């Protein structure tokens, strides 16, 4: 374990900055409360530092860095939201950005060539397979080819500009092992080798070109599973499990390590070195 989160959280989001700090944002604190907390973790000091809170508290959001700014997308706060807010670490300030359509929570995001892609999720209409692309230069969204499998609480990792959508909850609450890859250069999807352990509410991060899928839940409840996918060979392997089974956690990679953050209303943070 490394330094714990200041607050136990579920359904939070995490992303790594160009300066190799891990940011944990939003989530669920229990008792029907959404969080607007933003905490920054420095691997070099093994410490979390509170930053300016996100303007809109929400759980089930997604987050990623585009350049040097952290973008937070969607979520739930007294209903599904289409909120997009951007955090600038250099000024410790937030700004609103163009909202995403439709409203959603429990989507995943990935960044390829400076464009953010929001994938899947759910709203009052049910599970989504839509893909929307955000261009920070024009502050605008555009629709892309939909993902073949509608799902929420999936994980996403980006390797070589290709976006991999992993697992999640499918129709009728199914635990999915589906892996589908989106190539922004051709706006097309390709099915890849399935994840060995079907699960939803997992977290995904990429270390040295390998995608790691950690935690989540299956029919038996929270799991501590860690499995690694190598896009160059389209193969999966099993890695040592997380110390504690957790679902609705977040993951990020920094300095060659995978960080599994929160989940199951825990403040636990675990680091794995491949």
Descriptive tags:
4-stranded antiparallel β-sheet; 0% helix; 29 strands; single chain; 274 residues; mainly beta
Characterization of this structure:
There is one protein chain. The protein is 0% helix and 45% strand. The chain is an all-beta fold and 274 residues long. The protein has a 4-stranded antiparallel sheet, with no helix packed on it. Strand 11 (108-112) and strand 12 (115-119) form a beta hairpin. The model has no long low-confidence stretch (mean pLDDT 97).
Secondary-structure map:
Elements: E1 13-16, E2 22-25, E3 28-30, E4 33-34, E5 38-42, E6 47-50, E7 62-66, E8 69-73, E9 84-88, E10 93-96, E11 108-112, E12 115-119, E13 122-123, E14 126-127, E15 131-135, E16 140-144, E17 155-159, E18 162-166, E19 179-183, E20 188-191, E21 203-207, E22 210-214, E23 217-218, E24 221-222, E25 226-230, E26 235-239, E27 250-254, E28 257-261, E29 269-272
Antiparallel strand pairs: 1-2, 2-5, 3-4, 5-6, 7-8, 8-9, 9-10, 11-12, 12-15, 13-14, 15-16, 17-18, 18-19, 19-20, 21-22, 22-25, 23-24, 25-26, 27-28, 28-29
């Amino acid at each position: 374990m490394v330094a714990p989160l200041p607050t136990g959280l579920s359904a939070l989001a995490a992303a790594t900055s160009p300066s190799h700090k891990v940011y944990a944002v939003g989530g669920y604190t229990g008792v029907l409360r959404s969080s607007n907390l933003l905490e920054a973790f420095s691997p070099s000091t093994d410490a979390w530092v509170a930053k300016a809170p996100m303007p809109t508290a929400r759980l089930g959001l997604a987050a990623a860095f585009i350049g040097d700014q952290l973008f937070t997308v969607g979520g739930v706060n007294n209903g599904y939201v289409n909120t997009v807010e951007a955090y600038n670490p250099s000024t410790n300030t937030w700004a609103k950005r163009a909202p995403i359509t439709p409203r959603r929570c429990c989507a995943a995001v990935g960044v390829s060539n400076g464009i953010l892609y929001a994938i899947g999720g759910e709203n009052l209409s049910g599970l989504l397979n839509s893909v929307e692309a955000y261009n920070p230069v024009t502050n605008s969204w555009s629709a892309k080819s939909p993902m073949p499998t509608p799902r929420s609480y999936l994980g996403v990792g980006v390797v070589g500009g290709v976006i991999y959508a992993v697992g999640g909850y499918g129709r009728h609450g199914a635990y999915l092992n589906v892996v589908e890859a989106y190539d922004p250069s051709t706006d097309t999807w390709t099915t890849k080798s399935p994840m060995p352990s079907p699960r939803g509410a997992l977290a995904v991060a990429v270390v040295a070109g390998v995608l790691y899928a950690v935690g989540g839940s299956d029919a038996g409840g929270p799991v501590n599973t860690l499995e690694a996918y190598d896009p160059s060979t389209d193969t999966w392997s099993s890695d040592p499990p997380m110390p504690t089974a957790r679902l609705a956690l977040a993951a990020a990679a920094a300095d060659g390590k995978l960080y599994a953050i929160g989940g199951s209303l825990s403040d636990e943070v675990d680091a794995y070195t491949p």
